[in-house]
Amino acid sequence: MIISQSQIDAHNEKGLAAHRKRLEFLTSEIEGVEDIINKLIDFQIAIPSWALGSGGTRFGRFSGGGEPSCLEEKLEDIGLLHRLNRSSGAISLHIPWDIPRDPQAIKNLAADLGLRFDAMNSNTFQDQEGQALSYKFGSMQHVDKAVRRQAIEHNIEVINYGIELGSKSLTVWLADGSCFPGQLNFRRAFNNTLECLQEVYKALPDDWKMFVEYKAYEPNFYSTTVGDWGQSFLYASKLGDKAYTLVDLGHHLPNANIEQIVALLLSEGKLGGFHFNDSKYGDDDLTVGSIKPYQLFLIFNELVEGMDARGMNHATDLGWMIDASHNVKDPLEDLLQSVEAIKLAYAQALLVDTKALNEAQMSNDVAAAQEILQHAFRTDLRPLVAEARLRAGGALQPLQLFRDAKVRQQLIGKRGEKTVATGL
Ligand SMILES: [Mn+2]
């Protein structure tokens, strides 16, 4: 392991006095600190296997060096993150990029690193080498039944890999849609897709969930066959109890009120999972909380309120995952920042005085409602997130330790300057 527990302990020892001072102040200021810390310790965010290397854009890709080039190395990178922050205890795989050649060995490695397998992701948005039929004009929406059958078979294959590894969910994101008016019959595209999803759903084990992810546009630019939460909700409702909508923060049209979408999906029992990222314009896949931290907090506020209303377990009843891509930052540093932003927004949402907020709402006290939310958002809860990490055995300042321990230089030394992760 590149970072040892004694290195983490030494790092924590150095920062402990200053941390204690900040924590003490916060504890004197707010109520329910212990409850928030315990919830933070339980809250884990899955890391996608494709976020560990430079993602690039359609204009270019700039490798940072030392990237993982096989599934084992991807697991090791996430194990490293988890060791630092104790909040990244799960990996989300992508098939065919991460086909486990020896599932038992992969399971053992994951267990050694304290990782579990989160949602499995299928891929019918690219053609793979040796693939019989092309997805150029869609997969599940395709006019040719043989192409649709191929897409169904692929998703079933992904489920089977997931069963071997102990995953419990399948995320289906389809690039299907059209680039020009007239290209598609919308009704036919919807019904073909529904029929295919139904076939995949039939292959889903009883204790699995199926997440239908939507996206407004890109790679298709005129229509998308699962284009928004309404369409995803329609598919999930028609499929059955094991099907849910997955919300990816970057998959909306500009200025969409994502917190309201989340609230309604939760209240209908159809919110299944989350892909965290941030964006300025489109599906930018930037670091979580880097552009719109207040929106992230408002989303978490709805999540906490809505999950509590349904008696759900924050840590386990929804799928929490990062879905990001990076071209200019060290991917591991970026992921540490994303996880920190998610936990901070979660902590702030836990701080909201829900009783007072409800009273303000019931008396139409608009100014008070705003004050209550912004008070929570503007309280610096970083010491609570750090304390949760400390108690779980992680580092007080994961990013600082990552740099001090020269993790990237060590990875480059081990793996080389020019490595490219599979799928990127
Ligand atoms: Mn996504």
From TrEMBL:
Lineage of origin: Bacteria, Pseudomonadati, Bacteroidota, Chitinophagia, Chitinophagales
A GO molecular function held by the record: isomerase activity
Coiled-coil intervals, chain numbering: none
Listed Gene3D superfamilies: Divalent-metal-dependent TIM barrel enzymes
Taxonomic source organism: Niabella digestorum
SUPFAM superfamilies: Xylose isomerase-like
Keyword ATP-binding attached: no
Protein name stated in the entry: Sugar isomerase
Record key words, sorted: Isomerase, Manganese, Metal-binding
PANTHER family recorded: L-RHAMNOSE ISOMERASE
